[in-house]
Write a structure and sequence with these properties.
The chain is α/β, with parallel strands linked by helices and about 850 residues long. Among the domains are: about 100 residues, 3-Layer(aba) Sandwich (MutS, DNA mismatch repair protein, domain I); about 140 residues, Nucleotidyltransferase, domain 5; about 80 residues, MutS, DNA mismatch repair protein, Chain A, domain 3, CATH 1.10.1420.10; about 210 residues, P-loop containing nucleotide triphosphate hydrolases (Rossmann fold, 3-Layer(aba) Sandwich); about 35 residues, no CATH class. Helix content is about 45%, strand content about 15%. It contains 29 helices and 26 strands. The radius of gyration is 41 Å and the shape is elongated. This is DNA mismatch repair protein MutS. Belongs to the DNA mismatch repair MutS family. Pfam families: MutS_I, MutS_II, MutS_III, MutS_IV, MutS_V. Keywords: ATP-binding, DNA damage, DNA repair, DNA-binding, Nucleotide-binding.
């Protein structure tokens, strides 16, 4: 080490503590990387790899990026899965003795990225922690860009599936766990299912004692009971471990994470991974695009905050009828009042992203433009409050009452920051004139310094009578008074001789020195004072973070409500009746996404399900006829109703369901070694283990991934299991090509047959897209194949084979009918033989009767017995 340069010794000392990070080492106007970090960065960022002398024979590999444009490079590295440690100068170079002190001020990871240029403003950027032990599991999730922080816990039983569902709901960019969980099968399952940056941290940071203290210290509380964490040990461990990780990587600037919320999955409808994917709630299955998803239809929000809130409402429908109805009332009022809705939209369009601006403010990396955007955003809050004053629904009245106009914050920024501030905070030009007298003096000195010098020059000429006295300037002496030798006798006593030249002498005065100091140092003092003033203003705004975050929440809800109202109005949606009953009654229901893509050309259908006579609908019909669309639209209508949205239907009565399960389509998971059929059975198993009588099940083509008899057997058994009220008894839509299952209507209580109507035209078919009662007797597979474009030769041969198979099938049916007829004939013959035998016996008994020896009563009794026997024959 003695031979290594002092600067590189400093580098190695810092790098030792951040071995798993790419170290951005600040040198002047660049962040430099060395050795392996440089090799990696040069490759990933496609920048030149150079070298630097460091006291050894070989040069150290080196590359760098300008500090003013580093954010984009850092974001690219983080997106590729790297952690980046930012090492800055932490002392003034002018005051440094030797090497300037440097230290890491922040570690940037996928879950802590703040760069707005790479983050999707409509999505939260979550980081999640999962903690596991024998007695249970804890989960915590945070978005450092908004300050949202939540935690929950699960008992060991079924914890894995619940955690996987939560990961699917939050879609975190980064996940941390305790060391004990890293080798658990759950961790492997997470890696297989989700593309998430996963790392473990010291087990001790998750210990209940350490985690509890970490949270109490951060929130400045003596107890966590106020956050609802009493007797929630696993939740505390998960939240405390996550907070420790954030403090360790972010160092400071986490004041906007001002509370932790404990939630339970009972607060909203849980949706498993498969159902989210199959229903395409926020993105399409194939392209992963928002367009073509339910969110793409419903999102007409005007703010980034509202867009994130809309996504949450879609992903977590409610379970409380009263809360749902309150949302629906708010949507209804906005839908019915176009002018009110347009006024609200006009105000929302002026608003920037409160939440993420505040995260930058608290992190102390917000600039004056951020504060100006915040000011412009809250400028119209009083107007918005006046607009909401006219609202009558409970939901909107509540938003009106809670909305804080933040007038003092607007007043502070308006008074302090210029209208169009510069991007940088180190070059002045940010602070408005009149805010600070001292700054105004420096500003005037900078602008009027030359005229002040000319004015003093004139005043000194008049006082001394020296007409050719001049005030001049050079870099050595600064400003000075110059007097020719012929006028030296008129120089006042307060002039201090500074320099004698051949034909003149130079003087200074205390007044000139003061003025010179004010003028010459004005620019530097302006920059320094403006930065200090800006920091004070930014800190003052940061102190109001909780008020501003709450206001952002109110704006988000209002934005979602107006968006749902706008969609309901433009797409002719209706207000559903939502209650705690067990009936789903949809008249003229439509698929929201397909209808939009078809520009309204959609054939509606009815749906009726209950927990009694129409518990399970078996739906048959050809492929492409619309079975899957129909079933999905039912699920989406129910989900929309429970999130508080109007629905695409003529009318809808929705009894709240506790969960929606879907098993739709065919897919395999080759990375996990699972075939299409294995994936299908795994999803079905999840449904059968978790569904209740309050659930809605969408089951499409169960058993199609295996042989006909196996598949039919499985589908039949699943159908019986789901339909049985003593086992599950869930409301179910069951689509199948196994026509044999239609025989279950009348045999299983609550099972009804439905089919998709088609019209045959010769060898072609027309899909009518209409659901009707009864079962389908054809699959029309060959006709669908023709529509798909199979060669005519294949179609012709398929028809030949189909006729042969149908003929064989008819023969089998005929033989079965004949066998049944023979059995019936034999049974009839046996009955006839028994009749004749009985008849013969009766005749023999009558012949043997001695009528003359019988009393009248005995004769009547015998006649009565014979008649009774004859009637029973």
């Amino acid at each position: 080490m003695a031979k290594i340069t002092p600067m590189m010794q400093q580098y190695f000392a810092i790098k030792e503590n951040y071995k798993h990070c790419l170290l951005f080492f600040r040198l002047g106007d660049f962040y430099e990387m060395f050795f392996e970090d440089a090799v990696i960065a040069s490759k990933e960022l496609e920048i030149t790899l150079t070298g630097k002398d460091w006291g050894q024979e070989e040069r150290a590999p080196m590359c760098g990026v300008p500090f003013h444009s580093a954010d984009g490079y850092i974001a690219r590295l983080v997106e590729k899965g790297y952690k980046v440690a930012i090492c800055e100068q932490v002392e003034d170079p002018k005051l440094a003795k030797g090497i300037v002190k440097r230290d890491v001020i922040r570690v940037i990871t996928p879950g802590t990225l703040l760069d707005q240029s790479v983050l999707d403003e409509s999505k939260n950027n979550y980081i999640m922690a999962v903690y596991g032990e024998k007695s249970g599991y804890g989960l915590a999730v945070c978005d450092v860009t908004t300050g949202e922080f939540q935690t929950t816990q699960f008992p060991t039983i079924l914890a894995a599936s619940k955690i996987l569902d939560e990961i699917a709901r939050f879609s975190p960019a980064e996940l941390i766990c305790n060391e004990g969980l890293k080798e658990h099968p759950l961790a492997e399952e997470i890696k297989k299912r989700f593309q998430i940056y996963l790392n473990d941290i010291d087990e001790r940071m998750f210990s209940h004692r350490t985690a509890k203290k970490t949270l109490e210290d951060h929130f400045h509380v003596a107890s966590l009971d106020g956050f609802g964490l009493e007797k929630k040990p696993q939740a505390i461990s998960a939240a405390g471990g996550l907070m420790w990780y954030l403090l360790e990587t972010q160092k400071n600037g986490l004041e906007h994470i001002s509370a932790v919320k404990y939630y339970t999955t009972g607060d909203f409808m849980p949706l498993d991974v498969a159902s989210r994917r199959n229903l395409e709630l926020t993105e399409t299955m194939r392209e992963k695009n928002k367009r073509g998803s339910l969110l793409g239809v419903l999102d007409e929000t005007k703010t980034a905050m509202g867009a994130r809130m809309m996504r949450k409402w879609v992903e977590q429908p409610l379970l409380q009828a009263e809360e749902i109805r309150k949302r629906l009332d708010g949507v209804e009022e906005l839908k019915n009042d176009l002018f009110l809705r347009e006024e609200i939209k006009d105000v929302l369009r002026t608003m920037y992203d409160f939440e993420r601006i505040m995260s930058r403010v608290v992190y102390q990396n917000a600039n004056a433009r951020d504060l100006a955007m915040l000011k412009n955003s809250i400028a119209n809050l009083p107007l918005l409050k006046n607009i909401l004053m006219r609202c009558k629904s409970g939901c909107l009245r509540e938003l009106y009452e809670k909305l804080d106009p933040l007038e003092n914050i607007h007043e502070l920024i308006e008074k302090a920051i210029v209208e169009d501030p510069p991007f940088t905070v180190r070059e002045g030009g940010m602070i408005r004139e009149g805010y600070c007298d001292e700054l105004d003096t420096y500003s005037r000195a900078k602008k009027e310094g030359t005229s002040w010098i000319h004015q003093m020059e004139e005043e000194e000429r008049e006082k001394t009578g020296i007409k050719n006295l001049k005030i001049r300037y050079n870099k050595v002496f600064g400003y000075y008074l110059e007097v020719t030798k012929s006028n030296l006798e008129d120089v006042p006593d307060n002039y201090i001789r500074k320099q004698t030249l051949a034909n003149c002498e130079r003087f200074i005065t205390p007044e000139l020195n003061d003025l010179a100091e004010l003028i010459l140092g004005s620019e530097e003092k302006i920059v320094s004072l403006e930065y200090d003033l800006f920091t004070e203003i930014r800190n003052a705004v940061a102190a109001e973070v909780e008020r501003i975050q709450f206001c952002a929440h109110i704006i988000s809800e209002l934005d979602v409500l107006q968006s749902l109202a706008e969609v309901a109005s433009s797409r002719n949606y209706v207000k559903p009746v939502v209650d705690d009953g067990d009936v789903i009654d949809i008249k003229g229901g439509r698929h929201p996404v397909v209808e939009k893509l078809m520009d309204g050309q959609f054939i509606p259908n009815d749906t009726y399900l209950d927990n009694d006579e129409t518990r399970l609908a078996i739906i048959t019909g050809p492929n492409m006829a619309g079975k899957s669309t129909y079933m999905r639209q039912t699920a989406l209508i129910v989900l929309m109703a429970q999130m508080g949205s109007f629905v695409p239907a003529d009318s809808a009565h929705i009894g709240i369901v506790d969960r929606i399960f879907t098993r739709v389509g065919a897919s395999d998971d080759l990375s996990a070694g699972q075939s299409t059929f294995m994936v299908e059975m795994t999803e079905v198993a999840n449904i059968l283990h978790n569904a209740t009588s309050k659930s809605l099940l969408i089951l499409d083509e169960i058993g199609r991934g295996t042989s006909t008899f196996d598949g039919l057997s499985i589908a039949w058994a699943v159908l019986e299991y789901v339909a049985d009220p003593k086992v599950i008894g869930a409301k179910t839509l069951f689509a199948t090509h196994y026509h044999e299952l239609s025989e279950l209507e009348g045999k299983l209580a609550g099972v009804k047959n439905y089919c998709v109507a088609v019209q045959e035209q010769g060898e072609d078919i027309i899909f009518l897209r209409k659901i009707k009662r009864g079962g389908a007797d054809h699959s029309y597979g060959v006709q669908v194949a023709r529509l798909a474009g199979l060669p005519n030769k294949v179609i012709k041969r398929s028809n030949q084979i189909l006729k042969q198979l149908n003929a064989a099938d008819i023969t089998k049916k005929a033989k079965r009918i004949a066998a049944e007829s023979r059995e019936q004939a034999e049974e009839t013959a046996q009955q006839v033989d028994m009749f004749h035998l009985e008849e013969t016996q009766m005749l023999e008994e009558i012949k043997k009767l001695d009528i003359m020896a019988m009393t009248p009563m005995e004769a009547l009794q015998k006649l009565f017995d014979l008649q009774k026997r004859a009637k029973g024959m």
